[in-house]
């Protein structure tokens, strides 16, 4: 494991690198609004990706590095994420396909930045389709706008809703709520199978 600080327009972001033995691609994972790298689903996906020959970069947003609890505005989150992706793409992961991903708020960032960041695919954990109890405030359009292969792993009883599948994205429902901690083996299996599928044509 390697720790880096990468400058962004909104302060330094912290990156925790977990490299595979022979990496064929890289997965950037963002955290939820109030959580960090210790989320069980992020850990499960990190280990699964490494086992599938994919390097993982866990990205901590500048607001958390600075010790703030309240999330930064979406435009700042996106700008910081893209700065990290650009730096890693030109150095550590030069020439490799990049997969954007994250849990909850981090999944939204991955979706919003996928096109500009030239992501080859997107992996969403617990995508917050709407605020709890407010289905009218849907964020489904953020997911629908992604035009590369996308996997959403969602808890069946997530109070943040259940996203709909679409032409470019599939939804896997697992036992559990927004924490996605009830079926970690299911998360790892789903992520591994999907990564193998989407990366096969890119590495052939």
TrEMBL record:
- Coiled-coil annotation reads none
Q: Name one Pfam family in it.
A: Abhydrolase_11
Against InterPro entries, the record matches this protein to:
AB_hydrolase_fold (IPR029058), KANL3/Tex30_Abhydrolase (IPR046879), NSL3/Tex30 (IPR026555)
In this chain the KANL3/Tex30 alpha/beta hydrolase-like domain maps to: 24-165
Extract the GO molecular function terms from the UniProt entry.
hydrolase activity
Classify the source by domain of life: Bacteria
Which keywords does this chain's UniProt record carry? Answer: Hydrolase
Q: Cross-referenced PANTHER family, in alphabetical order?
A: TESTIS DEVELOPMENT PROTEIN PRTD (PTHR13136), TESTIS-EXPRESSED PROTEIN 30 (PTHR13136:SF11)
Full protein name: Alpha/beta hydrolase
């Amino acid at each position: 494991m390697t720790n880096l600080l990468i400058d962004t327009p909104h302060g330094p972001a912290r990156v925790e690198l977990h490299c595979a033995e022979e990496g064929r691609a890289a997965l950037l994972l963002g955290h939820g609004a109030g959580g960090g790298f210790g989320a069980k689903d992020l850990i499960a996906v990190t280990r699964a990706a490494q086992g599938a020959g994919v390097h993982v970069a866990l990205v901590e947003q500048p607001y958390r590095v600075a010790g703030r609890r309240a999330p930064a505005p979406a435009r700042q989150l996106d700008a910081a994420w893209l700065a990290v992706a650009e730096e890693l793409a030109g150095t550590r992961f030069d020439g490799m396909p990049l997969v954007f991903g994250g849990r909850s708020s981090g999944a939204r960032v991955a979706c919003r930045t996928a096109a500009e960041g030239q992501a080859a695919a997107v992996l969403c954990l617990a995508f917050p389709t709407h605020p709890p109890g407010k289905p009218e405030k849907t964020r489904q359009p953020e997911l629908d706008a992604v035009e590369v292969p996308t996997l959403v792993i969602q808890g069946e009883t997530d109070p943040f809703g259940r996203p709909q599948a679409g032409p470019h994205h599939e939804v896997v429902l697992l036992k559990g709520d927004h924490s996605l901690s009830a079926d970690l083996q299911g998360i790892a299996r789903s992520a591994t199978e999907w990564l193998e599928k989407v990366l096969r044509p890119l590495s052939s």
